[in-house]
Design brief:
Elements lengths: L16 E6 L5 H6 L4 E5 L10 E2 L6 H13 L6 E5 L1 H16 L13 H23 L3 E13 L7 E6 L3 H10 L2 E7 L1 E9 L2 E8 L7 E4 L9 E2 L6 E3 L2 H14 L9
Parallel strand pairs: 1-5, 1-7, 2-3, 2-4, 4-5
Antiparallel strand pairs: 5-6, 7-10, 7-11, 8-9, 10-12
Helix pairs in contact: 2-4, 3-4, 4-5
């Protein structure tokens, strides 16, 4: 068969690869636990109060890879793999790089000047290769959870501003953002109002919308407030709810929507 005869036409339906990051306590792990038959690869101790299946807490990068290798090589009924969390996994990767170069800080690895972070990408590729195998050969959904940080963003078209992003080094963040089908920011909906503070001054007050500390949502399209993207044509925001997310993805697969990265 010639190469031209192997050309694929039409959409490929494959399990989603999701990077979901957000504030502490917003419900990222709960969301992952509601995916189909999930198994958690724990790099931090945070699922004790969640009814889910999980490997023992990974205390090293080798522990993480052992979990992924078992899923790749052994028969099982799991349909979703959840890394909880990617930023704690990054710490384990930094430990590997530091031992490799005989230093105590990733800043000094490979002679410093940020080269240690670049070397860490080798280990990140081991992770994504294993996750890609689970997606393609085991038909598993992949979810990477991460905490959020606030970073300065130097927009060449406007003034510098703060925005939320995954709590990862920029090299790892770029790799995982590109690899994932959707990068979603989990947060609470808030409103702000200005009131008189006296003496001719105003003050801004933030208030949560809804019950239980505010309506929990997923931001699906990036903008000045956060990094986000999706290849499913999802709306700007969705409820922080697994059925709502899967319904949005299913609808987009029907409509063949393009990558969404525009501002909210």
């Amino acid at each position: 068969m010639s190469l031209l005869e192997k050309i694929h036409h039409g959409k490929r339906q494959a399990p989603p690869r999701l990077l979901i990051y957000g504030l502490e306590g917003v419900g990222k792990s709960q969301l992952g636990s509601r995916a189909p038959k999930p198994i958690f690869v724990q790099t931090e101790d945070g699922v004790d109060q969640i009814d889910c299946h999980s490997f023992p807490l990974a205390k090293s990068f080798d522990d993480v890879m052992a979990c992924l290798t078992a899923l790749c090589s052994e028969d099982h009924a799991y349909e979703t793999v959840v890394i909880d969390t990617a930023d704690w996994l990054e710490r384990l990767i930094f430990d590997v790089v530091c031992r490799q170069y005989g230093v105590k800080s990733i800043e000094k690895a490979d002679g410093g000047y940020g080269r240690g972070y670049v070397q860490a990408l080798t280990n990140w590729h081991e992770v994504t290769d294993a996750l890609q195998y689970l997606r393609e050969q085991k038909d598993m959904i992949v979810i990477l959870l991460a905490h959020a940080k606030v970073e300065k963003f130097q927009d060449p078209e406007s003034a510098t501003y703060d925005r939320y992003s995954p709590r990862l080094n920029k090299h790892a963040s770029a790799l995982l953002t590109e690899w994932s089908d959707a990068v979603l920011f989990a947060t609470r909906k808030i409103i702000t109002r200005t009131e008189d503070a006296g003496f001719g001054r105003d003050r801004t007050i933030a208030a949560a919308l809804g019950k239980d500390g505010g309506e929990r949502i997923l931001r699906c399209i990036g903008g000045p407030s956060c990094i986000a993207k999706n290849r499913y044509g999802l709306p700007a925001e969705l409820p922080l709810d697994w059925p709502a997310l899967m319904a949005g993805i299913a609808q987009s697969e029907t409509n063949n929507q393009p990558l969404q990265t525009q501002e909210n």
